[in-house]
Amino acid sequence: MSDDDLETEKAGEDGEGGEERYPYGEYEGGKDEQLDRHGWGSALLPNGDIYEGQYYHGRRHGKGLYCFKNGARYEGEWRKGLKHGHGDFLYPDGTKYMGHWRKDLKHGQGTYFYANGDTYEGFWYKGLRHGLGTYTYKSVNVTHYGTWKNGRMEGPGIINYPYYRYHGNFEKNLPKGKGCFTFDAKYMQHGFYVNMRDPAFDYVGAEELKIEGTDNNPPVEDLGTPIGIVPIWRARNITEYKTELLPPEPVPLLVKDSEDSILDIIEYLQQQYHEGTGADEEEHRATPSPVPQDMLVDIPDIDLDNI
Asked: Which UniProt keywords apply (predicted)?
């Protein structure tokens, strides 16, 4: 996995501009009483992008196909004008993501197919690999299964080589600390990895190279493997294979639900309540809603993540 892959994942997802406002291109389809796009429709946007699918009071909402002028395309679910739910995104260079989205970002279970044949299958959080996942390096037939944090290998992991495995801990995509190699579940070589500067690396500006970053919020392009750093294996001893001697296995990451998740639940309850009122609505007006009245507010434009 190269550092360029991180930039590739973001390429092609933008290009829609800001919120949709009239006038904004050509449109054919349903409209509501306010003449906003509503129901099924097809739109040619001023920037050359094309959308065909469902609208809800002026916003893309439901299933639809969005074709970007740069060649990218997204087909899947929308919510309040954003990619939200399950959908497939085809990038201009042929790479593809199939999985879940939330607020226009890859979020949840999904699979990313890279142009060089590599794949990542696992969990995402706010657009980055985060949680349990498996990255497959096609050219060398090697897979890495483990824990990912903010786009990089962090914590316990297992690398499966064609004839042996490595079990250990990772930091910033590199193995570090105690670990062991296993061979056909018969023998184990114990030792540890240390991360050292590559003597063959051209250290022009080497003072900027460091294993431990100081930026608490690094940009996406800086989330690759530290350059000029190589992991060195130090073997200690060889034993028979015993599962109790293996390092800790990768475990799922606990992701704290944001307040937006609670709002999603409230909206779902509201929808279920309104769908349950049909022909007998007049006879049941006195029945209280399962959602408190002070919570029945319009909340789609509130971005609680930035509060």
From this structure: Repeat
**Pick from 110, 143, 111, 105: nearest CA to 126:** 105
First and final CA of the chain: distance in angstroms? Answer: 35
Cis amide leading into 218 (omega within 30): no
Quick one: what percent of the chain has pLDDT higher than 70? 67
Given this model, what pLDDT does residue 203 score?
A: 53
- Tokens 């739109």 belong to which residue? 43
Rounded Cα distance between 59 and 83, Å, is: 11
pLDDT tens, position by position, 257-301: 554 555 555 554 555 555 444 333 333 333 233 333 343 334 344
More confident residue, 71 or 209: 71
